[in-house]
């Protein structure tokens, strides 16, 4: 089934091969009419890079881009999950009125969460190259 | 109906046993059902593994991670890359009915 997510995922895979080493496509599925999914891992220098996106028919996307060090400790993570802490940071006491809203945020190694702009895979790679 | 090319050597031999078309239809049906069951089993086992790892069914986990800050902090600490699991979990949950439907459709045909 052809839908925009299919082309997006193909481009993501090609970009991963151009910018990471030892890329492994651990799961990729675009057969489902309601969801398309990609999960891949690769290496950037000594770091382990983990990338996942789920695309929904309504056009929404949940992404997760993570970097682990050689001891598998999280160095950084970017995602837009419906995290309660991210919602509280953005909406304060009104957080409960934005239940299930997916908010872009960053996870730091010490467990903090910071709100971010929307991140895509290319932006994530640029962040990695500029900060690690 | 879709036409599929099959090497004549198989047709020649199958004809010795009867209706080659019917035999091929039966073989394709059985193989397709086998592959569908394998996919269903994979999805069910992966969903069960996520439920065991996070202690909740998918919808319950989604609700709790979005409302319970202590639970969220615990999950972040224990499973820092849990969002990668969540994406996979969501896909599995939505993919399973598709394959169950395909199983039903072909089983009944």
Number of helices of chain B: 5
Task: Round the Cα radius of gyration of chain A to an integer and report it.
Answer: 15 Å
Structural class of chain A: alpha+beta
Fraction of residues in β-strands of chain B: under 5%
For this entry, what is the oligomeric state of its chains? heterodimer
Major beta sheet, strand line-up of chain A: 1-2-3-4-5-6-7
**Mean pLDDT value of chain B:** 95
What's the total count of β strands of chain B?
A: 0
Structural class of chain B: mainly alpha
Radius of gyration of chain B: 22 Å
Which residue ranges of chain B are poorly predicted, with pLDDT under 50 across at least 5 consecutive positions? none
Tell me, briefly, the overall form of chain A.
Answer: flat
Number of strands of chain A: 7
Question: Kindly state the mean pLDDT of chain A as a whole number?
Answer: 94
Overall shape of chain B: rod-shaped
């Amino acid at each position: 089934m052809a839908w925009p997510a299919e082309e997006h995922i193909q481009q993501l895979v090609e970009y991963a091969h151009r910018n990471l080493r030892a890329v492994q496509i651990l799961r990729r599925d675009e057969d489902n009419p309601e969801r398309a999914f990609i999960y891949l891992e690769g290496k950037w220098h000594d770091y382990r890079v983990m990338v996942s996106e789920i695309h929904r028919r309504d056009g929404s996307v949940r992404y997760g881009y993570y970097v682990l060090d050689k001891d598998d400790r999280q160095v950084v993570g970017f995602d837009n999950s419906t995290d309660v802490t991210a919602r509280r940071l953005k909406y304060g006491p009104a957080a409960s009125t934005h239940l299930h809203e997916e908010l872009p945020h960053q996870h730091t190694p010490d467990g903090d969460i910071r709100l971010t702009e929307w991140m895509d895979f290319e932006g994530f790679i640029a962040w990695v190259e500029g900060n690690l | 109906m879709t036409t599929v090319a099959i090497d004549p050597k198989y047709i020649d031999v199958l004809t010795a046993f009867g209706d080659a078309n019917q035999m091929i239809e039966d073989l394709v049906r059985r193989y397709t059902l086998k592959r569908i069951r394998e996919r269903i089993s994979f999805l069910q086992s992966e969903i069960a593994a996520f439920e065991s790892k996070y202690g909740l069914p998918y919808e319950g986990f989604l609700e709790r991670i979005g409302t319970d800050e202590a639970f969220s902090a615990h999950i972040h600490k224990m499973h820092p890359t849990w969002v990668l699991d969540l994406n996979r979990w969501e896909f599995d949950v939505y993919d399973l009915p598709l394959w169950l439907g395909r199983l039903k459709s072909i089983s009944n045909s």
